[in-house]
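Reopening this ticket.

The earlier resolution said the output was attached, but the attachment link was broken on my side. Pasting everything inline this time so it's all in one place.
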Amino acid sequence: MSDAKIKIINDQAKVVGEWAMPTSLSEIKIKPAVVHQVVVAYQANRRSDTAHTKNRSEVRGGGKKPWKQKGTGRARQGSIRSPQWIGGGVVFGPRNERNHVQRLPAKLKASATLMVVKDYLLNNRVTVLQAWPQSPKTKDFVAVFKNLALPKRKALVILSEQEKDLRRGLQNIKDVTLLAVKQFNMYDGLRRPQWLISQTALQELTKRLAIK
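Inline output:
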């Protein structure tokens, strides 16, 4: 085990123990370039093109030549669906046919996730709670956040499989995002400045991320 110790507190914000950061996690070197690469890939993969314009071949109508080629004194025109016409096709407009998916090696994504976890742990951005209140009521959870001085900070609450019944009480708290351990990813983690996780969920998370 490493020398890095993470404090474990109860719902009254009192220190009741410590969690030693595993050696495999402490030995990882944080590389911002790698984290940035994975974040860009996450954003690209979540991107959906909704803006779409029609070109001249997709616009309805315009099959007839507006007027004859010669003799009118006007410029020659072949279709009222040409781009220069109002209601005509759009040139170089946005299309929903692009594929923004970026595929990265699984090991690279896993490594970037561990870097983010380590960074949050070392910078005191992870609050490890001994256990959640037994009563899954919103007012009890609000009291916990108040005791931990986290009510005004946008926090990410990471829940284990055993704590899934707590969602009903936690989801009513403003500026709090809930995420199951099995859904945890570095992109959603980076979007919140503070994580709140119980000992049970922390053990489940380290097992899922293969931290030893």
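Reporter confirms the inline version is readable. Residues 133 and 140 are 7 Å apart (CA to CA). The chain has two domains: 5-47+102-208, 50-99.
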